[in-house]
Amino acid sequence: MKTPLHYQISEYDCGPTAMMNAMSFLFTREQLLPEIVQHIMLYSLDAYNAKGETGRSGTSRMAMMFLSNWLTQFGKACQFPVACKYLSQDAVYLGGDSELTQTLRCHGAVIVRLNYGGDHYVLLTEQEGEQVSMFDPYFRKRPFIQEDIALIDSEPFKRNRIVTIDRLNAKQKDGLYALGPKKGREAILLFNQNTRLTEEKTIEYFI
Questions:
Q1: Cα gap 151→146, rounded to integer Å
Q2: Greater confidence, 149 or 58?
């Protein structure tokens, strides 16, 4: 059974929440192993703020990179069908031949670090044309005034936002939901190897 994606419970835990949501999106509750949940929580919330307080700056890039590598190695060692790839800088964009777009077309999921009043992790689950389905773990009730961001409250297993590719690809650091300057971009591609579309199947699917 799939479970609804969930929201962060503090101002700091968008990283582990986005990672847990990726697992919930890709796998059923019965498939997930306790070691995955344990390690996501163990290695996240590691970033220190200016006062030296741990966790108060959320989850670091190094922690997310480590988690993506750990999940892939865990999958190989334990015959669990998860695979991840960490991307940064120029490789992180949507549209055309981007790896993020190809991942979404192959039934994978993408975690990106973008701007939402500061650095913030969200989950991307689908792309249809110029529209990208997103689950933002930061709970919000008010609709957005921006015409290219839609608030969705009826699809808890897949998305709670629809955002355009142009907004996501924006290079300005303070743009809402913008990936920002290329040198600071970060993404994690995640797959359930049992449901992942191969290149041949993807070509056939889009013909």
A1: 10
A2: 149
